[in-house]
Amino acid sequence: MALIEAKHLSLGYDRQSIVEDLSFRVEAGDYLCIVGENGSGKTTLMKTLLRLIEPLRGSIVLGDGLRRNEIGYLPQQTVVQRDFPASVREIVISGCQGRSRLFYTAKDKALAEENMRRMGILDLKNRCYRELSGGQQQRVLLARALCATRKVLLLDEPVAGLDPVVTAEMYDLIAELNREGVTIIMISHDLDEAIACCTHILHIGKSAFFGTKEQYLNSDIGRRFLAPEGGATA
Predict the structure, then answer these.
(1) CA–CA dist 225, 234 (Å, integer)
(2) In 3D, which of 47, 60, 46, 52 has the Cα closest to residue 9?
(3) For position 79, what pLDDT does the model report?
């Protein structure tokens, strides 16, 4: 059974549909990239997968023993979030809150340390989050998301606003997590880089496509979206 299966989804707000009749499935170990024109509903889909909003129609089925609180999420950052006055350690360990406990356990603290080490930020654990660079902040948020899950990460534009060097480092980190067995579902505006990493593509908008990277590259919608004169953005 698929880890996540969406069946005939209609997405939107206040009964106003943005996306109609969308179906796809994500298997354990997949690296799915969600692309499409600006305003096509990519972030709305991600929030629907997280049950932050409900689908207008259709269903989302979790399989393979996956529970809702085992899905890690790295949202797009706002200016307010970038200025959050907490330590790196406090933010990272807050990813354990989804387990519905009143206090952090020794296991939670060890997991936070492990994920800070994995993200190369252990030496920053006592620093204030708002004093960090954009790339360091994204590593902190990725470590936090990993405290919530060892199974699935949902990433909404994880390299937005980062310089090219830090962007490449972030993509390398995400690809390494996928090689370690973490399933990745990522929205990205950088289609060339995303295609280099992913196994599957979900394209939403006026036309929809779901399939492997190779199938997308050979499809009409993929060729149109990737055409230089089309000014494609994700």
Answers:
(1) 9
(2) 60
(3) 58
CB 199 within 8 A of CB 211: no
Angle made by CA atoms 119, 123, 126, in degrees to the nearest 5 = 110
Residue that wins the pLDDT comparison between 79 and 32: 32
Q: For the domain covering 1-66+151-234, report its CATH number.
A: 3.40.50.300
Query: How many other C-beta atoms can be found within 10 angstroms of the C-beta atom of residue 111?
Result: 21
* Separation between Cα atoms, residue 32 and residue 46, nearest integer Å: 12
In 1-149, beta strands by DSSP E: 4-13, 16-26, 31-35, 57-62, 71-74
User: 145: which residues sit within 8 A by CB, 6+ positions away?
Assistant: 72, 73, 74, 95, 153, 155
Write out pLDDT tens, residues 150-183.
Answer: 899 999 999 888 888 988 899 999 999 999 999 9
- Rounded to whole angstroms, the Cα distance separating 149 from 39 reads 29
Residue intervals in the chain for CATH 3.40.50.300: 1-66+151-234
Would you state the pLDDT for residue 145?
A: 92
**Token match 């499409």: residue?**
36
The tens digit of pLDDT for each residue in 55-79 reads 999 999 999 889 888 899 998 876 5
